[in-house]
Amino acid sequence: MRSATAISILVFLGPGAARAQSACQDDPPECAVPAVVGTQPCTIFTRRAIERAANGILGAEAPAMPALRIGCSGTTVDNRGRVPCQILKAIAWAMTGWRQFCTDGCEETGRTVVGRGCRFGMLQVPESEAGPEVDLTRVVAELPYNAGTAARRLAVEWGRTPCVGDQLPDVAEHWYFAVWASDAFTYANDPNNPAFPVLRPPYGAGAGSFDRGSYPFQEVIFGLAANPPREGDEPLWTPSALALPASEQICGTAGCAPGDIEAPSQAHGRDCPPVAPPTDGGVPDASVPDGGDAGPPADGGNAEVPTSVVGCGCRAAGARAALPLPLLVLCLLLLGTRGGDGKLPDARDAVRLEGMILAHDAHPVEERLRGKESIERVAVVPG
Length: 383
Prior knowledge:
The chain is mostly helical. The chain has one domain. Helices cover 29% and strands 7% of the residues. It has helices at 15-25, 43-55, 85-96, 136-141, 143-160, 176-183, 217-226, 313-318, 325-335, 347-361, and strands at residues 10-11, 37-39, 68-70, 76-78, 109-111, 114-115, 119-120, 125-126, 230-231, 234-235, 307-308. The strands form 5 sheets. A 3-stranded antiparallel sheet has the order 6-7-8. A hairpin with a 3-residue loop joins strand 6 (114-115) and strand 7 (119-120). Helix 2 (43-55) runs parallel beside helix 5 (143-160), helix 3 (85-96) crosses helix 7 and helix 5 packs across helix 6. Mean pLDDT is 76; it is low at 1-13, 280-323 and 335-383.
């Protein structure tokens, strides 16, 4: 049943949403944990949940993040478990179009998206993740917990897979193998697999881009990071043109195990904006937005384009008692009309409101590449 207070609709399009739609059309498979009925959050809530998951600051809303190794020796670790925001957002979009539940829009109710092989929710967390650290019932029922579990899975793969360059967790390109392994670290995702066209353009980069099946999983994610879907006139996240490593460094025959490789000459940060600390008394975020990654929005070519009027973020924001009165008034105005013309708020209104909320919530402190004397060896360039 649609909530009476909801004023926004999210039309999910693209391969990720198509996968979710296919899973929702069939009866869910028999799994260790059944699907539940829940309400699909709106875009603002979903985006902020993914960002908090990537920053490892969901507190009791998600399983604990593991420490991250720095460098290839494995002797230096960073206890601030975190993953690149643009990568986690892209994975969530590729998997389900940001859908935790089988609905056509936000503030609607439906059952959990359950994919083949008992994969659950927005990030299609596999049933095999269940264990002492992961409560599968919460993976199925709670979008933040689902995102936090997927971030944890990605961080675990960081410690298992070969090195890219100096293996610095704050360089998004260094997560190439971890992203590959988060789907399947097999020959099926080898960039040299003859199943993929040799001369393929970057995924999502204009009308010349091939269909999703023409790319290994990690190239789909890197392509989406650079070419995010749009909601109205706004991209769902800041485009981040992540560079791929040279494929000739990676063994191209079935059964071989990829080894350490050199990093691309370009590098980007984690692209995580300021987010609110957990409300359960947990540790606040230990990072600031990476900055400098944003390039101009990519023009056209990306088939994964949702359209919506995002307004229900105001309801969630208004629930925060700490927000100042002027911001609450703005929420009420956005929930009503804009400028007295009787029009519903559009995506640009929501983005402006979200920026104010983020500025209010931010607790920035200095972020460092630990274990390194400087970042001069990493050339951070605009997207």
